[in-house]
Amino acid sequence: QMGKGSFKYAWVLDKLKAERERGITIDISLWKFETSKYYVTIIDAPGHRDFIKNMITGTSQADCAVLIVAAGVGEFEAGISKNGQTREHALLAYTLGVKQLIVGVNKMDSTEPPYSQKRYEEIVKEVSTYIKKIGYNPDTVAFVPISGWNGDNMLEPSSNMPWFKGWKVTRKDGSASGTTLLEARALPAPGQRHCRASRGFVPQLVSQGIGTVPVGRVETGVLKPGMVVTFAPVNVTTEVKSVEMHHEALAEALPGDNVGFNVKNVSVKDVRRGNVAGDSKNDPPMEAVIILNHPGQISAGYAPVLDCHTAHIACKFAELKEKIDRRSGKKLEDGPKFLKSGDAAIVDMIPGKPMCVESFSDYPPLGRFAVRDMRQTVAVGVIKAVDKKAGGAGKVTKSAQKAQKAK
């Protein structure tokens, strides 16, 4: 059973009844498979504006983003327009630290004429210009003309587009080429981060008979059974009993791994989505007041939603400290009264509820953020410094106490 025609491949990943009935993706869903080189986790994130929060949660877990752009008449123009979802999704992917981008130019069968080379080249030119502005290098991005409905260039080269000679990307670590979207997906994954103390954020929680299983991504360091971890900002300390990926037990999980880890004596009420787990002995994370580097349309007192990793929390712009040059970082003005679109500034921000973030220089995955208001992304930035405060006496489970005594 396939459902809506234009929804053919999405039908596999959309599990919610409402998604299948409405013909749109609402929440993120994960599918996993293995290749000879990698464990691959596909995160299907919603493109619809109403569910952008879920899209951010999904994107923040990814190593590589596949941006699907519709080539149909009027569809591409709507997506790439000033308030379009194509722009917003590319911007959020870069802001959330997704280094690798692939662009699938979809619905090539519905261009005028069908499979138009001119239309494809026009789209590649415009998307390249935009992604370069936000920070991607177009030379490192694979562009593939596809038809998800007919399967053109999805798994095998299409005879409908003989003019397409394939994609090629050039990077510092070498170049790669191919023809299909499948081949583009096999591009080497970006380097992983082992240098810092362990950090992992929690996008999901599962309660099982054996205890609570936080599901999330290891961002820095390692996560292994026997480690005592602290969840911030809730300040809950417990022992990691086991770590699993793809239903297999792991001796240790490394940066980039999407895993589930079993913790005893912790209920789903103690820990929630957006919390960060870190090694309790090595630089444990704490709740933060944030000072950050920020472009947008803002004045002091503004309180939009800040999205950082999988946390979505209202934050108040307490003080506009200085306006800076976007490219050089040099100070232009002290204490500006307001910031307009295109400006960059150093700003003091205070979260409305406890949240766990880090400075970008120490923990890049936990130091990037997006600011949303009026159902759109109004600003992006990085955290320059964090004014940390201890969370007070928090919960320490019996298993954590035993593990700490044993060491």
List the helices and strands and how they pair.
Blueprint: H1 10-13, H2 17-22, E1 29-34, E2 39-44, H3 52-59, E3 64-70, H4 75-80, H5 85-95, E4 100-106, H6 117-134, E5 142-145, E6 167-171, E7 174-178, H7 181-185, E8 199-208, E9 211-220, E10 228-232, E11 236-245, E12 248-249, E13 258-263, E14 276-279, E15 287-295, E16 298-299, E17 305-308, E18 311-324, E19 331-334, E20 338-339, E21 344-351, E22 368-373, E23 376-389, E24 395-396, H8 398-406
Parallel strand pairs: 3-4, 4-5, 11-24
Antiparallel strand pairs: 1-2, 6-7, 8-9, 8-14, 9-13, 10-11, 10-14, 11-12, 11-13, 15-21, 15-23, 16-20, 17-18, 17-22, 18-19, 18-21, 22-23
Pfam family, one: GTP_EFTU
Function: This protein promotes the GTP-dependent binding of aminoacyl-tRNA to the A-site of ribosomes during protein biosynthesis.
Keywords: Elongation factor, GTP-binding, Nucleotide-binding, Protein biosynthesis
